[in-house]
Input
Amino acid sequence: MKTSFNSSKSCFSAFSQLDENQRVTFLPLKHLTLFLYITLLSPKFFVYLSYKDYSMKKILLLAALEDEFGAEGARRLSESCDVRFTGVGKLRAFEATLKALSGGDYDAVLNAGTCGSLRHATGTVLRPSVIVQGDIYVDSIFATPPEFAARGDEGVSIVSSDDFIGPDTAAERRASAGRYDCFDMESYAIARAVRFYADELGGRLPVSAFLKLVSDNADGDAGEWSVRIERLRPALVAATEEAVKELLSTTANRILIETDDLR
Output
């Protein structure tokens, strides 16, 4: 026999509305057996009590720089997930991701930030599902297979390079980057670190997701990016907040399913 989640909530709600003297009377009487049954045999009861705190600790949000969210945006996002900044470049991103994963048992990892694109207009929000390593690792004997995000728009791709792609970038490299929906400097390293953490270090594999806002069309340098992000930041923070909510909802359903399986 299973006690429904609604029954657990009703019992807790009734108990919480009693004053201290009433609670003393409430527990020793006929309700004691039901109360103990619910709390000891119904894992969902504990999920109900600690759902908010539990779920908030399960999302890891990674971005290259705090400037992408701004101090206030980072503070707002930190209310619903753990926020970490990796630094720029694939090596830093790989190391920072592994360090963060080793310090917490996460259900999902979201990498959010800006990107360049030769296909989409500035301000476009993309959710890549195919993550490719750029530089010499494309179309060469050193080519590595792509990584795939558990959440994202089908067929949307991003390639990660260690160099900023701008107007002075060689035509061949610009053409290579243009084969993908967008490009950045961290996504592939983060995706690879997530899989490495599970496959090689024995960690639990979290759901992975990527959200990118197009900040340029390879038509400016890093200095101009600092100016553009001021205008684009509100849209990036808003899109990231929505992505976090979606992941929290998915995580909540996953928690309830897993705890129900304990019975």
DSSP finds nine helices and nine strands in the chain. The chain has a mean pLDDT of 80. The two ends are 10 Å apart (CA to CA). The longest strand covers residues 207-216.
